[in-house]
Structure formats: structure tokens, C-alpha cells
Amino acid sequence: MTDESKAMSIPAAESRARQATARDRGATGALPQEKHVEEPSDDELAAKAGQGDRGAFERLAWRWWDRIRGFCSALAGFDPEIARDAAQETLIQLHRSISKWEKAGSFGSFLYGICKNVTKGVIRSRARTRNRQVSLHDGLSYEPEDPTGTAEDAAIKRDLQRQLAIAMRSLEIEDRELIYLHEAEGMAVKALAAMMGLPEGTIKSRLFRIRKKLATIFEEAGYD
Questions:
Q1: Which has the closest alpha carbon to 161: 150, 145, 178?
Q2: CATH, domain range 40-135
């Protein structure tokens, strides 16, 4: 194409663009609004992942990763090494079994079931291989310390984290699961009852008993 033909093509293209814009405006004189693209739900991503869609699985794993780590950490009594191994193994097991997920049940319940089984397995494996004394000086939280806080604030937070680890390790793993999902994830009693196949009254009484036990441990440690 010559320079002249290029120059002639520019106004022609601009004219076509103006005509297209006029058609788009229509009688209202306004440009059409961009359509809002909704994010796929967990169920939709899980269904695609179950059919071999790698991108859907990676997106789902990324979306749930923090909750997987938090749940595994709570089940492990905030042991950082067990929590790390359990979280990583959970992703592996999820990838292997996601094709078995059925939409009749919630994806969250399916995933938390995998987390629980994997964490229990890691705990048993550790108990078999070595008698490990868990250091209370291990990092018990995934959140970095606030750089703007004082040294006293940081010390109080570390002490509280250590005490929480001691308290959680005093609970059975099923109780750790229940109190974490209710308090940290905000799951309602009704949802917990459906997930665990128990009456709502049983869930309420277990939560009451767990809270009472944790409160006693903290009171004995000098916390109000």
C-alpha cells in the first residue's frame, strides 16, 4: 500500500467508526453499558475442574487456599509444620477426588471433609514416626506482625497465640473443627448440623461445652 492510499484509508476508517458509534447510540444518544461479567461460583468451577479443566481447578484452589490453611491449622492445634503439610496434601487430594464431588452437597463441606481426613492422617503419621515435642515458640499465625505496633503489643499477641495453641490442642479434633468453622468461618448452627449430620441442638450443646472449656483454660492462664 502506498503512502497516499494509507492516508486515504485513515479518514475512511474514522468515518466507519463514527457510523458504528451512531448506530450503537441509537435513539437514546448514549453508548451501551458494558455487560457485567459475574464470577463463576465455587460449584461451577468445581464442576469444570471435575471434567479436567485445569484452569478452573487452579482458580478454585487459589480462592480457597487461605481457608484451607486456616482450617488445617486449627485442626492441627496450630502446629505450623503439620498445618503446612496438611494444607499442601489437601490440594493434592482435592485434585485427585474432585471428579467425585456431587452437586447435591456443598463444595465447602466436600473440601473441609478432605481437610479433616488429611490433617488427621498427617497427625497420625507424625505420631508414628517420632515423638515430637511441639515448640510453643513456633509461628502460630499466618499473619505477619504489625510493623506499626509496639514491642509490648507484639509480645502480648505472641503470648495469646501460644495460649490459643495450648487450648486448641486440648480439644478433640472434631471439636477443633466445629469451633473453627463456627467462630472463624462464621458457619451457622444450621449449616454445621447439615454438614455433620447432627441435630442442631447437639451442635449448640457442643459449642457451649467447647467455649466453656476454652474459657476455663484462658482464665487459668490469667486472661479474662
A1: 145
A2: 1.10.1740.10
- Output Rg (C-alpha) for the chain, integer angstroms: 27
CB 123 within 8 A of CB 83: no
C-alpha pair distances (Å), 20 with each of 14, 16, 17 = 10, 6, 5
Q: What is the pLDDT of residue 58?
A: 94
Question: Residues near 207 by Cβ (< 8 Å), separated by ≥ 6?
Answer: 178, 179, 182, 189
pLDDT, tens digit, 9 for 90 and up, residues 160-196: 777 778 888 888 999 999 999 998 888 899 999 988 8
In this structure, which amino acid lies at residue 147? P
Following DSSP, what letter does each residue of 131-194 receive, concatenated?
-----TTS---SSPP-TTS-HHHHHHHHHHHHHHHHHHHTS-HHHHHHHHHHHTS---HHHHHH
Q: Is 141 left (phi over 0), alpha (psi -120 to 50) or beta?
A: beta
CA–CA distance, 78 with 30 (Å, rounded to integer): 57
What kind of architecture, by CATH, is found in domain 146-224?
A: Orthogonal Bundle (1.10)
User: Would you say the C-alpha torsion 128, 130, 133, 134 has a positive or negative sign?
Assistant: negative
